[in-house]
Design a protein that fits this description.
With 160 residues, the chain is of the alpha+beta class. It has a single domain (7-158), classed as Nuclear Transport Factor 2, Chain: A (Roll). Helices cover 19% and strands 32% of the residues. Strand 2 (31-35) and strand 3 form a beta hairpin. The N and C termini lie far apart (64 Å).
């Protein structure tokens, strides 16, 4: 009796680019193009834009910094609780407290990175804090990555 060998189906995605280790939705929920491997379909289709690798990690760090505990129903302890600190006067003592909270929050909720340093500089004139994070992502070697952003009462924004 003849047999049919379908070994080709055992590794369907072997031709895909496996360089994307981490993936997350783009925080602005914009549309973009994505790879499609379905038979008789165009290779590019319109879909929700995704961020990969370091972009996905940036999204996670932004979510940690801007989410207050209790805002995420399925994980009520997720996030950093700045409370009313961001609505108070910008001082060096509050900058240290913000830096400590960011350091502890990232170490707790983002296991993909190692935090090397968090530097928070108060900017009382603009009522904001300038934040510089130094991290490494062990999955992508030990190269140090600097994340620079601004934290104010409206949220956290990258300067990269």
């Amino acid at each position: 009796m003849p047999s049919i060998n379908l070994d080709i189906l055992s590794n369907v995605n072997s031709f895909r680019n496996n360089a994307n280790v981490y993936s997350d939705l783009h925080l602005d929920l914009e549309t973009g193009y994505t790879f499609n491997d379905q038979l008789y379909k165009n290779q590019q289709i319109l879909d929700v834009q995704a961020d990969t690798n370091l972009g996905a990690i940036y999204n996670s760090i932004t979510s940690i910094i801007t989410t207050r505990p209790g805002q995420k129903p399925l994980n009520p302890v997720f996030g950093i609780g700045f409370g009313d600190m961001l609505f108070m006067a910008v001082t060096n003592d509050r900058a240290r407290a913000v830096g400590t909270a960011i350091y502890e929050g990232i170490k707790r909720f983002e296991p993909r990175v190692n935090v090397l340093n968090v530097n928070v500089v108060p900017d009382p004139e603009n009522n904001q804090y300038s934040i510089e994070l130094s991290i490494t992502v062990p999955r992508f070697s030990t190269q140090q990555v600097k994340i620079v952003g601004v934290l104010d009462k409206a949220g956290f924004y990258f300067n990269n």
